[in-house]
Specification:
Layout: E1 5-15, E2 20-25, H1 32-35, E3 39-40, E4 46-51, E5 57-62, H2 71-75, E6 81-85, H3 99-102, E7 106-109, E8 112-122, E9 127-131, E10 136-138, E11 146-148, E12 153-155, H4 160-167
Parallel strand pairs: 7-12
Antiparallel strand pairs: 1-2, 1-6, 2-5, 3-4, 4-5, 7-8, 8-9, 9-10, 11-12
């Protein structure tokens, strides 16, 4: 997979018998998917998309402009991930990040490496960073107070509930105790 590609959507289940599919968009505005010249999948195939109704129903067309012929063809592209080149997307606002920009960054706490970010999870209640080795860190200003994009390093302060008192190290900031 090319490192300059950003996941923008995933093809879901077929809709009807005419080759339409449901598409889950990761864009702030799902309508933006229609504007990309080409969406690229994991196999390097180019697609275009046109929304056809409510609930994320879309028509996918291949590089030759051919729409999926029927439900069987639509079933064949279920779970296809759709990407766009990073340079086709707007620069994120300050304090905003594309998940792809965070993946691969080294996480450090008190100058010691905790590992690299291998995944960003966001299930709606706030993002968390998964580090190599399985550690999850809430992606909040309190837990990730500094991100150095130029050097691809982020600073982590694990809450005591995650690190334990012995894991916080000498001289590390203390998490305030909740008041009664």
């Amino acid at each position: 997979m090319r490192p300059d590609l950003i996941l923008i959507g995933v093809v879901g289940r077929p809709h009807g018998v005419r080759g339409l599919v449901r598409v889950h968009s990761y864009a702030d505005d799902p309508a933006a998917l229609e504007g990309f010249k080409a969406l690229v999948d994991d196999q390097g195939r180019n697609w275009s998309l046109r929304w056809r109704g409510a609930d994320g129903v879309a028509e996918l067309r291949d590089a030759q402009g051919q729409a999926l012929a029927d439900r069987t063809a639509a079933q064949g592209v279920v779970n296809t991930r759709l990407y766009v080149p990073r340079d086709a997307l707007p620069e994120p606002e300050e304090e905003e990040f594309y998940h792809a920009d965070l993946i691969g960054m080294e996480a450090r706490e008190n100058g010691q490496s905790l590992g690299r970010v291998i995944m960003v999870h966001d299930y709606g209640a706030g993002a968390s960073l998964e580090l190599a080795g399985g550690m999850l860190v809430p992606f909040t200003r309190a837990c990730v107070p500094e991100i150095d994009q130029a050097n691809r390093v982020l600073t982590v302060i694990r809450p005591v509930e995650v690190a334990g008192e012995e894991g916080r190290g000498v001289g590390s900031p203390k998490t305030p105790e909740p008041s009664a």
